[in-house]
Description:
Oligomer: single chain
Distance between the termini: 48 Å
Number of helices: 14
Strand order of the largest sheet: 1-2
Shape: globular
Mean pLDDT: 90
Structural class: mainly alpha
Strand content: under 5%
Radius of gyration: 22 Å
Amino acid sequence: MILSNDTITTMKPPYKITEEVLKLVVAISEKIGEINAINLHRPATELRKKNRIKTIHSSLEIEGNTLTKEQITALLDNKRVIAPKKDIIEVQNAIEVYNQLHSFNPNKLKDLEKAHGILMNGLIENAGKLRTKNVGIVKGSKVEHIAPGGDMVKGLMKGLFKYLKDDKDILIIKSCVFHYEFEFIHPFIDGNGRMGRLWQTLILMQEYPVFEFLPVEGLIKENQIEYYSVLSQSDKLGHSTPFIVFMLNIILKALDDLLNTQSRKLTSKDRIELFKEKIRDNKFSRKDYLQNFKDISSATASRDLKWAVDNGILHREGDKRLTKYYY
């Protein structure tokens, strides 16, 4: 990241799109295509909950939280848990911020500040406020990283969001660049690790819905030493390429795991819910429905639509070939 006060809002973050990076992006795109083709991009309700718990547990465990997946599940179900108060607050805040993911615009600094305010509420002073003080990151007895001065943070963050919004590079790459640059800038006094990982998820899920419930955090936790190593390596090189390669590999592995472990047979209810997300408030025909689910017969499509009408999920108008449906 360029640190001159005159250029911080206009310079593109330094990184290289290498042959390895391009190969990984192609492989990721192919996996996303496979996932969309078999409608795994929107997991069943139980799997969504399981993956969300895994994500929260892994992200907070990286930061030293002691709660187990079972305790997080209990908090998610509004049950009482005996644990350190700080750890409980961290989990409750994380649950809340993930519940509000769809309310945040990934291209707006104000939304990032709002999310940080929720995530760190009751844990630090000035939650949701960019830092104005100088900070260094210490690992053991060693200063691992000197973050840019507090007076530069706002300008750097504006520049980073300008890059995210305006740059023409592939979104998957930009999400990795944003994650690295966010950690480099270290814009908040605390909570930067979990916020950087959260925001990359938010960036990706705007274009690829599968990322909302994909437990990428779990793989980062499993590779935590390498995660911090490539952050440090990128700092020393002055560009984020090593971190981009690491994160692309993590994303590819998460998508691969999803394909290898989930053989999803859709029910009528599953198909009706999935189609609602695609068609939204528009009217559609049985032919439109069939084009979205090419592996089912016309009779199955008719049964799905009749079931939805009978249960008050869909409304129907017209007759025979002119029949239209809407939610």
